[in-house]
Each structure stands twice: as structure tokens, then as C-alpha cells.
Amino acid sequence: MVSVVPDLPHQFHNPPASSAAEVLAEAVNEAERWITTCQRPVIIGGVEIHRFGLQDDLLALAEGSQIPITTTMLGKSIIPETHPLFVGLYEGAMGNEVVTQFVEESDCLILLGTFMTDLNLGIYTANLDPGKCIYATSEQLRIRHHHFHGVLLADFIRELAERKPRPLRRQIPHIQSLATEKFVLSPAEPISIRQLIARLNESLDDETVVIADIGDSLFAATELVTRGRTEFISPAYYTSMGFSVPAALGAQVARPDLRTVVIVGDGAFQMTGMELSTIVRNGFPVIVILLDNKGYGTERLLHPGNTFNDIHPWAYHRLPEVLGGGTGYEVRTEGEFDAALSTAWADKSGFSLIQVHLSQTDSSIALSRLAERLARRV
């Protein structure tokens, strides 16, 4: 059969999907009745809001009903994090304690486009009662313990937004974050991951896309404040380590009008970092912030005292010499990082790679929380 030529070429058919009208109406009716009678509702937005372009519909629901919004790691940047209804990132035990308490005390959890993955649930430290959840994704719709089949995620959100259910107005707590804290530079101090993220946050705008790799690159970057939408991309899966540099190439091809900033650890970079060669070839002005702690920082906290988490050191800042393009920077202090980032930001002639030397014991707040909870079990 290998040499047989079919009479007609294959034609792809993509029949338009639609919701079952009666099922949709029943699901929206039940959701509206429950939301209207609850006292502490909250929306948890996930990555499918971005994938299906439902950002405006999510905001219409939240603003029409005045329901506070949180997002998961994968859903970060589906709405501006400066929005008055935004509470913060929900990460289970990894996240801000005030945000975690606000979510887990809710009597109605409206999870929209959110996948229950390990990192989205703070390595399963999240405490979400299914009996208090409206759980809607492209794959299923469940209201408490009632399952509804044949309902599209987009239709459910839009119909519910049109109803404008009006629960009790819930007070949003004041959350300390990089949006409210003033950054103070200490030029002579050794650079730390927290100060690095705080300084980077000063430069972000809605014309910037941040791509964070796995590990503390992601955990630390969750503190960044996104001001528009689709400004933050991360796989949030450990099996995707090394994602960020190739992803930056894809982001620049798709949106050459935006500036792409990569945050990547040295371990992840050594897997796929040579994709910088294609970035050089295309002249993309990507900024790569390489966190050099000479190994796998997350694993060090979970398995302290083991040398298998150490990796062979590279002179990363000299890679532009090898690749024939770009500019490299080597920094150890806050002042050096500030100067390197400012220069790189102004330079759009090619990529910039900032090798940031970090202490092997340095970590973000989120990673410290995670390690404290997981070290007892691993």
C-alpha cells in the first residue's frame, strides 16, 4: 500500500462546535442562583482564558458582578494585575498567605479555564473543596458535584456574564507586592534574586513579554506585576525545563513589535540555550537574564548536601563571541545589574545576555515556602 496514490486528496473538516442549548441554560441557571446567594465568591482564572481569547469575557463577568479575581501560575497575565478586582496569584502554600487565606475561605470558587496541575496547586498544597467549586474548562463543566456535558467554556462564561449575578460585595485585602513597594537600589550589595526581580519590575511595560523557565526563574518571576495582558509566559511544568530561550524565539517571530525578556537558570539554559544562534541570525533584541548559581537551586533546597545538583560552569557572558552577535554582561552586585539592564534595554541591535552570579543559598520567597513544605516528604 506504500506506493498507492489515493484518488482524492484528504480534505480536513473542522465542524463548528456549539453548546447544547438546554444544558447551557440549566448550567448557567444553577451557577447564577448559587453565586447570587454566596457571601465570599472569588474567580480563579487559568491559562485557557488566554488560549481561547476570553480575557474580555472574564473581565465582563468579574466587573458586572464585582467578584474578586485571582489567577494561577499558568494564568498569570490574563488580566492586568493592577486591576482593582485583582487579589493576587493563588499558589497554594507557595503563595502569599493573605491571598491563600482569601481564596480558601471562599464559599464559592469559580475556576475558569484552570487546570488542576501540580504547580498550579502549589505542589498539591492547595485546599480547594470541590463542594464549593464551579469548575469550567474546555474539557468539562462541574458545578459542585453536578456535571454538565456539551457546554463550551466560552459560552458558559459569556452567558454567566450577561446574567450579572450579584453576590455580596467582598472586601479585597491590601496585598503587599511590587506594585505597592518602592524599589530601593543598594549598588554595592551582592545581587539577590528578590532584588533582581524588583529591579526588572521597574522596567516592565505593556510592550514587554517576560518568559520564565522552570525553577526559581518561575517562582521568583511570579512577583512581577503585569500591566496588560499576555505579558508573562511559562510552561509551569518541570518536564519543560529549557523552555524559555526557544520560546523567546517563537514570541519574537509571532510579535516582533514586543520586547522579550527571558529569565532562565543555568541548568535550564545548558539544555537549550544554543537556540540563541537562531536569535542572532534573525537579529532579535531578546534580553536573557541568566541566573547563575552553578546548579539546580530548587533541588538543592529539597535535597541539601548533594553534589549531583552542581553543574559544570560556563562563561555565559562570552557566548556572543562564539555566536558572532549580541552583547554579554557579567554582574555580581545590584549596581552592576542595574547598569547592565539599563544598557541592554536601550540596545536593540541584537540580543543581550546578562550572567547574574547568585549565591547558592539564595532563593525567592515562593521557593523557600515550597521547600519548607516539600522537604518533609521528599
Would you spell out the secondary-structure blueprint of this structure?
Layout lengths: L20 H17 L3 E5 L1 H5 L3 H11 L3 E3 L14 E4 L7 H8 L3 E5 L20 E4 L4 E3 L2 E3 L4 H11 L29 H11 L4 E5 L3 H6 L10 E2 L10 H11 L4 E7 H7 L3 H7 L4 E6 L4 H6 L16 H5 L3 E5 L2 H13 L5 E6 L7 H10 L4
Parallel strand pairs: 1-2, 1-4, 2-3, 4-5, 8-9, 8-10, 10-11, 11-13, 12-13
Antiparallel strand pairs: 5-6, 6-7
Helix pairs in contact: 1-5, 3-5, 6-13
End-to-end separation in angstroms reads 53 Å
How are the strands of the largest sheet arranged?
Answer: 3-2-1-4-5-6-7
Total beta strand runs: 13
Extract low-pLDDT stretches.
none
Number of domains: 2
CATH superfamily of the largest domain: Thiamin diphosphate (ThDP)-binding fold, Pyr/PP domains
Classify the helix fraction into a percent range.
25-40%
CATH topology of the largest domain: Rossmann fold
CATH architecture label name of the largest domain: 3-Layer(aba) Sandwich
Structural features, described:
34% of the residues lie in helices and 15% in strands. With 378 residues, the protein is an alpha/beta fold. It folds into two domains: 21-163, TPP-binding domain (Rossmann fold, 3-Layer(aba) Sandwich), CATH 3.40.50; 193-374, 3-Layer(aba) Sandwich (Rossmann fold). A seven-stranded mixed beta sheet has the order 3-2-1-4-5-6-7, with helices on both faces. Strands 9-8-10-11-13-12 form a six-stranded parallel beta sheet, sandwiched between helices. The protein is globular and about 65 Å long.
